[in-house]
Structure formats: structure tokens, C-alpha cells
């Protein structure tokens, strides 16, 4: 696999660390837990979008774009990281924010990712939730082009075959880390939303015949729909790479039992995961993605899905900036004396 064939803007801090979580492993009494620190990729604190945007923004630059437009939920990490890339590369950035939760909370609407969007110079607009925000921004980009602007549209989550290349590369990176240290791993677990992370990873793992099962913990769509989305994108990504058919339908496994009341609405198990990771390992998760992913991971360990003696890698996809938009989800009144 020759990823250097594709344009890429090298701005990520790679490779990200692969660390053993001793205290969490002891607490849960199951498999040996490792974490792949993609929350440390850099670009406005880091997260999984950095890897995707390296490829997407290079394509934008190559096409002569002076502006990028993208979309996401109010507390979108993807939007914040796109704004950061645009700032670094001297482009304008416009973000269409989809109000998926209806929250009126002041911090949710102004702090966390939103604060950073604006600090990086992006302009934002909010719209009521709707069926196809990717089509909406494509239409807006067409209109801007008709007005003479050079615009590059990036789909929500940076999830298209170009963005997914970033996670093909992450699969290579993980394998090179474990092969280099003689460390056999048995499973990889990640949160899955707009599908690019899981799709890219599975293409990379399958193309290298890694024989490591990958589990996506869904944050929005039901299992069947999530798996279809990931599989569809994995097939297109494999085609782009010149290895069509490398991913089979049964390679794509998602579990959407931890979504709770809906996208962006914190769950008890997610809040428990945030506290466990923070108190035991000094690692910050976010309530929307990585905490729901970790909640599924923890629950499956408790249920014996991963066995003692196995080694499991949790891919930390970032997002802790959103904590500052979700402070109302926590009650720490008992910590004061
Ligand atoms: C912190 C975080 N984790 C996980 C995801 C899900 O990744 P993907 O959209 O590639 O499925 C996202 C997507 O926005 C995210 O922001």
C-alpha cells in the first residue's frame, strides 16, 4: 500500500503513543487494556479528524481553494479541527452547524468546540436538524462557486474516501508499533459515527491481512445502518487505493447499544466512563463519542466479551474540548468542602 501517492499536508503529530492502561486494566479485571492516543494528534488539541484532514486539506489546496465549507453538530470536533487546518493553511472556513440536540445551554452553544471554531477565525451558522447536511453544504458551495469563490466542501466528519485514507494510515501505524515491539494484539475498539475512522481502519487492517477484529461502538445510527455506512465507505476507500473487494461485509461490525437517548445526549454509562478514564488514567474522553465508545468497551469487558489474557486496544478518537460545552452533565457538588 503506497499512501504517498495521495496529496497530504503533514500537520499531525505522528505516530501517536500506544500506551498500556494498568489501573483501568486492574479495575476491570479483564483483558490487558491499551490505548492508541489519537487524542494527541495535534491541530487545536487533536482528535481523529487531524488524520483525515491531512488528506482532505491537501486536496483542497491542490484544487486552489481559498475557502472550505463543512458541517457538523453544534459541538462538532470535526468543525473545530477543520477551522484549525484552514487557519494554518491561510484559508477561510465556514461551518454549518446542525442543531441535533435542541439544547439552549449557554456553554453548549458558545464554549468548547464553538469557542475554538471562532478563535480559529471560522464563521458559523446554525440550522435546524435535517436529513442531509452534506447535500446542503454541496449546494451552498455550488452557489459560492457561481459567485466566483474557490470553495472546497468537506463532508461531515471528513468521512469520504479521501478522509478515510488517514485511518488506513493509522492501521499501518498501529501494526508497525505492535510488530516493532513484538506485541500481539487481539482486538481494536473505536467509537464510530460518520464512519470514516472505522472504514479506513478496516481497509488498512484487511489490506495488510492483520487478522485483528475491529469493533465500532456506534454513537448515532442503529447497528444495521451504521454497518452499511461503514461498509459502503470502506468499499469506496479500497477502490481508491486499488484494492477493491479487500473488505467483506462480515469484517464490518458495529454495536449501537450505547447510543442512549440519541446523538449528543450524554448517558450514565458514558459519564461513568469519563470519570473512570479521568480518575484512573488521567485521560479525558468526550461525552458524545469517545465516552460512549468507552462505555461500550467497559460494558463488554464486564460481560466477558474480551477475555483475560487478551490484549485489547481502545482507539481514543479525541473530543475532550466538548467537555467544556457539557459541564451541566456533571454534578461535582460533593467535591467541595
Ligand atoms: C471525538 C470523536 N470520536 C469519534 C468520532 C467518530 O468518528 P467517525 O465520524 O470517523 O466515525 C468523531 C466524529 O466526529 C469524533 O469527533
Automatic annotation (TrEMBL):
Signal peptide: none
EC number(s) reported in the record: 4.4.1.25
Cofactors that this protein relies on: pyridoxal 5'-phosphate
GO MF, one example: D-cysteine desulfhydrase activity
Keywords assigned: Lyase, Pyridoxal phosphate
UniProt domain Tryptophan synthase beta chain-like PALP: residue ranges: 12-318
Residues recorded with modification N6-(pyridoxal phosphate)lysine: 49
Origin: domain of life: Bacteria
Active site: 76
InterPro entries the record matches: ACCD_DCysDesulf, D-Cys_desShydrase, TrpB-like_PALP, TrpB-like_PALP_sf
Family: Belongs to the ACC deaminase/D-cysteine desulfhydrase family.
NCBIfam families noted in UniProt: ACC_deam_rel, PRK03910.1-4
Protein name (record): L-cysteate sulfo-lyase
Organism for this UniProt entry: Yoonia sediminilitoris
